[in-house]
Amino acid sequence: MPIPTTARANGTASLPSPEEARAIAREAYIYGFPLVDSYRVQYSYFVDRNDPEYKGEWNTLTNTARVYTPDDKAIQTPNSDTPYSSVGADLRAEPLVISVPEVENGRYYSIQFVDMYTFNFAYVGSRATGNSSGTFLLAGPNWKGKPPSGVSAVVRSETELAFLLFRTQLFDPADIDNVKKIQAGYRVEPLSAFLGQPAPAAPAKIDFIKPLSVDEERTSPQFFSLLDFILQFCPVNPLETEMMARFAKLGIGAGKTFDPQALPPELLEAVEAGMADAWAAFKEHKETELDTGKRSSADSFGTRAFLNGNYLDRMSGAVLGIYGNSKEEAIYPVYFIDSKGESIDGAGHRYRIRFAQDALPPVNAFWSLTLYELPSSLLSANSLHRYLINSPMLPDLKRDADGGITLEIQHEMPAADRQANWLPAPAGPFFLVMRLYWPKAEALDGRWKAPALERVN
C-alpha cells in the first residue's frame, strides 16, 4: 500500500502503533481544542463575509453598539453586560498601534489580548492601565523594530495572529449613546499609518480553510488537519518542543500534513478513540473538579506562565466559555448543579440565590449573574429580554426584610412582588455564570464565597 501522507510528512515510512496513536490523539486534542475552536470563531468574525457573525477585515476595529442577545451564536457563554469591540490582528507585516480615549471614572472598560493558543497575554483598561487615555503597540513574534515616541507600552504576542476583545460597560439601555462615544474613541492602525510612512510589503495572502462546526469538532479527525493549519502561525515554544515531536509522529504540527483519509483503518479508529478519550477526560475534570468547586474558571484562563502546561484546564475554559478573562480581570463562579448536587432544570423546578446585605459580590467594577441554555451554552430567549441581573440594577431590585437580596430563577413568572428579581429560565436544562469584574482581594483569596443555588421545589 502507498505510504500515508502523515508518514511522508515525517520523512519516514513508519507510523505509530494504534495504542500510541490513540494516546497522541488524546493529548493533541486536549492541547488543540482551544486553538481550533478559537479559529472557528475568528473565521466567522474576520474571514467569512457571508456569516451573520462577520465583523470586518483583519486589523480593522469593529464596534458592536449593543449587548449580546440569543441571536449571537458564535461564542459560547457570551457576556451581555458590556458592548464589545473587536480586532482580528494579523501581525506578520508590522505591529498595530492601539489608542484609547479617556474614560470617565466609575465606568469599566478593558482590552483583552488573546493569542492563537487562547492565552490572555496582556490587558489595557480600568484595572490594568487606568481610565486615562493611552497609546499601545502590539507586535508579533518576529518584529525587531523600536517603538515610536508617544507609545505607553509595547505588548508582544507569541503568535502571528491575535484577537483583541474590547469591553465597555453599559449601565442601562439609556446609556448606549455614551458607550458609542467611547467606542468611537478607540483607534487601531498599522504602525506605518501611525507614523505616516509607507506600509511594508504585504505578507502572503492566507488561504483560510473552512472550520468545522461545533458538533464536528467533537468527532471529526479533520480536527487535526485544522490544527496543522493553525499551528503554522504559532512558532513552537521551547517548553513544547518535546510534545510537538510526539505529535509529529501522527503528522500533527506546523508544516505537517494530517490526512485522515490516508491513515490505515486501525489508526483512524485509534485517532477517533483518542478524541473520545479527550472528551471523557474533560467530563471527568468538570464533574470532579469544577462542579465540586475544587477548581474554578480562575484556573482556566491566563498567560502561558499562569496555565503552566495545564492543557486540560485550558480546554475546559474554551469548552465552557472561550475567551474568559484572567482572574485578576474577572472571575466566574459557575452553577452547573444546585446545592443538593443535582443538575439544574427549569422544567418544573424553581431556584433562588440569596445575597446577605453585607455579602454582595466584592468588586472594584461590577458583578452580574447570567443564565445560559444547555446544551448550546447560549443566552436564553424570554419575553422580558432579560438575560442577566447585575449590580447596576440594584436600585430596582426588591430587598428582603433584613436588607438582603433574593434572586428568583425559574421558567414561570413569579408573583408580582418578586418580578423585579426574576431571571427567566427555559423549560429545560440551563446553567448560571456569575461575573465579578475587577474582583477585590476577598473574592480572589476565597474569603468571599458565592452563595448557594437553592432549589425551591
- The computed structural class is alpha+beta
The radius of gyration is: 23 Å
Major beta sheet, specifics?
5 strands, antiparallel
Shape: globular
Helix and strand string, N-terminal first?
A: HHEEEEEEEEHEHHHHHHHEEEEEEEEHE
Q: Kindly state the mean pLDDT as a whole number?
A: 94
Oligomer: single chain
User: How many β strands by DSSP?
Assistant: 18
The span between the termini is 64 Å
- Count of helix runs: 11
Instruction: Report the portion of residues in β strands.
Output: 15-25%
Uncertain spans: 1-13
In helices, the fraction of residues equals 25-40%
Q: Can you put this structure into words, describing what you see?
A:
- Helix 2 crosses helix 6.
- The protein is an alpha+beta fold and 457 residues long.
- The N and C termini lie far apart (64 Å).
- The longest helix has 29 residues.
- The radius of gyration is 23 Å and the shape is globular.
- The strands form four sheets. The protein has a five-stranded antiparallel β-sheet.
- The chain has eleven helices and 18 strands.
